[in-house]
Design brief:
About 35% of the residues lie in helices and about 20% in strands. With about 290 residues, the protein is of the alpha/beta class. It has a single domain, classed as TIM Barrel. Helix 1 links the parallel strand 1 and strand 2. The relative contact order is 0.18. The mean pLDDT is about 95. Zinc ion (ZN) binds next to loops. (5S)-5-amino-3-OXO-hexanoic acid binds next to strand 6.
Length: about 290
């Protein structure tokens, strides 16, 4: 069991904003940034509010999720032109619309291409196991494919964040660590509340945290109704924060969030109130192992 740390002994807190996501769009919250200029402007607003990492998904001109590398190029270039926030591309891409109106999961081939984005993203995520993702049916993340993705990312000096939706995903990460594929410290996102993965409960979160190696960084991702309470609970245990419209379109019950920056501002405010210091981009780069050319 982990021994609790005093807040004053905790590492500086990294705030990630997941602004867009790969599933829902402006149809359910008009403030969700879809186009590169909107994503870059929102990233700047979030940086000014205290975010040091911007988690990215790409949309085409119609707002549909896309794996087109040119769109990622545009997004990352525009963000870099505005502020130094760490750019992190989600390797799930999301649900790509089909002619019949349904969504298909992005293919493993499309997703592997993300290791080639130019300019280089500062970080990439890896989803640590295959499971039935609520909206998309099977979300394929085979261990051997993940190992190859991580290997190619490290070849470009791009650090990885591990998204774990289930206990078994933590053990998949530990297996890749044992094989020397993943490097310490591992950066974990503990994702609770996605249909098909583990639901959110304080006990399930505590069980996950108990199984990550000492020295790892972690944050909790929960969607919608538990996001605020779970994130506050986690920050009091030394976790980093992820917030934003990818995970939650609401600011409060029945009240849509006005912007990603509004979500960041609240989390920074609460973190400061509980005594956590917010990491600058430079500090977050150091903690996450981000190296720029
Ligand atoms: N949508 C989140 C629950 C990714 O983009 O690769 C998980 C996520 C992973 O952000
Ligand atoms: Zn994502």
């Amino acid at each position: 069991m982990r021994i609790a740390l005093e807040v004053a002994q905790m590492e500086k807190l990294i705030v990630t904003v997941a602004q867009t996501g790969g599933i829902h769009g402006k149809d359910i919250n008009p403030a969700l940034p879809e186009q590169p200029d909107e994503i870059a402007q929102s990233a700047l607003d979030c940086y000014n509010a205290g975010a040091s990492v911007c988690h990215i998904h790409a949309r085409d001109k119609k707002g549909h999720t896309t794996g087109d590398l040119n769109v990622y190029t545009e997004i990352i270039s525009q963000i870099k032109a505005k502020c130094p926030i760490i750019t992190q591309v989600g390797n799930g891409i999301g649900g790509v619309p089909q002619p019949d109106g349904t969504l298909r999961a992005a293919t493993l081939e499309e997703r592997m291409e993300l290791v080639n984005i130019q300019p280089k993203p500062d970080m990439l995520t890896v989803n640590m196991g295959t499971f039935e993702f609520g909206y998309l049916d099977t979300f394929e993340n085979p261990l051997a494919w993940n190992a190859e993705f991580i290997k190619r990312s490290y070849e470009r000096d791009i650090p990885i964040e591990c998204e774990c939706y289930d206990m078994s995903h933590i053990f998949n990460a530990l297996e890749l660590l044992r094989r020397g594929v993943l490097r310490q410290p591992v950066h974990f996102s503990l994702v609770l509340g996605i249909k098909g993965g583990m639901p959110f409960s304080p006990k399930l979160l505590a069980m996950m945290v108990d199984h990550i190696p000492e020295g790892s960084t972690w944050q909790v991702i929960t969607i919608s109704k538990f996001q605020l309470s779970a994130t506050v609970m986690a920050m009091c245990q030394g976790a980093n924060i992820r917030t934003g419209l990818e995970d939650n379109i609401y600011y409060a019950k029945n009240e849509l969030a006005k912007s990603n920056a509004q979500m960041v501002e609240r989390m920074v405010r609460i973190a400061r109130e509980v005594g956590r210091e917010i990491a600058t981009v430079e500090e977050a780069m150091q903690i996450l192992g981000v190296k720029r050319d």
